[in-house]
């Protein structure tokens, strides 16, 4: 048995010749050190989260913003794991319920469903092991990993590392099942702790510990990221799941993994917490900027649409809900004739509000380009530079 350091866990040799990791309980002992740098990053993260929370009340449709962000986060989460799927594909899938649902899109849709399920469930159940298992069940339902015990903690040893590696050559071997159950019980107690530390720091510790325990056979990353949003929601810091941590973790994947390993090997919680809080500050700031732009974009688009008439104005409202739309759907939702729906969409297209994307005469499809662009990180950075 080799303790790395008093607040790190230890590796324990297993009968079949490999070393598995056993976690140290949360909160860390000695406690997380709040030096000057930590205090600065913590206050930046808290300030950014507060601004994001405040601005959500100004959004024309916070629910939609949330939906778009959850989708975007889901797409990125899937991309972390190497599944490519764009936001357009997800929206396209939603538009056409009969459409072919590829596996990648299925995973994204499941992620959105799991998030919505979790938020609803928090009305009656605290964030707990039971809720985590339920969310996992939704996440893996009918997609890749569906045979890997959705909704159930693992009953066998797992390991993390490059594809094809074995228990002996793995980068990291999470706790054996009995130790895993003990670590989970401690994690659950810590989830309910409302007094020992700032919530954002608690989120950082919980995410890292959850990834280290790795209690599921698949989907641990996605569940671990969802837990952050759900905890912020449960504690009323951010009522809508507007936080968008996946982008940061994706862009800094090597450092993300290194920091987790540094906690496991050396008990360096401070390095991890600072990294995580930097991410919270960055993604909250970006989301707040996006929210401001949506408010402004909506005002500008309404002015353009009003110049055409009341149908176009109603259509713009609809487009915030259905950013990819065909004429039949517009006809049905606006409760007007096919010709009126078609003319209104063409008018908006003339003004550049929407863009026809098929290039066909029939089954035309219009995209609310200006709005969708606001969710693209590249476009956002570009506009920030020129703002
Ligand atoms: N080399 C590594 N070092 C440290 N942590 C790792 C490493 N590889 C994976 N992890 C952790 O395990 C998670 C992935 O676990 P798993 O494959 O069960 O989850 P997932 O949701 O299917 O994947 P992903 O997080 O990639 O979307 C990562 O998000 C990360 O937290």
TrEMBL record:
UniProt keyword list: ATP-binding, Nucleotide-binding, Nucleotidyltransferase, Transferase
Any single Pfam family the record assigns to this protein: Fic
EC number of the protein: 2.7.7.-
Keyword ATP-binding (UniProt): yes
Keyword S-adenosyl-L-methionine in annotation: no
GO molecular function list: ATP binding; nucleotidyltransferase activity
Alphabetized InterPro entries for the sequence: Fic/DOC_N, Fido, Fido-like_dom_sf, Fido_containing, SoFic-like
Domain Fido: 127-278
Enzyme class: transferase
Active site: 214
Residues that coordinate or bind ATP: 81, 214, 218-225, 256-257
Name by which UniProt lists this protein: Adenosine monophosphate-protein transferase SoFic
Organism from which the protein derives: Ferrovum myxofaciens
Taxon lineage: Bacteria, Pseudomonadati, Pseudomonadota, Betaproteobacteria, Ferrovales
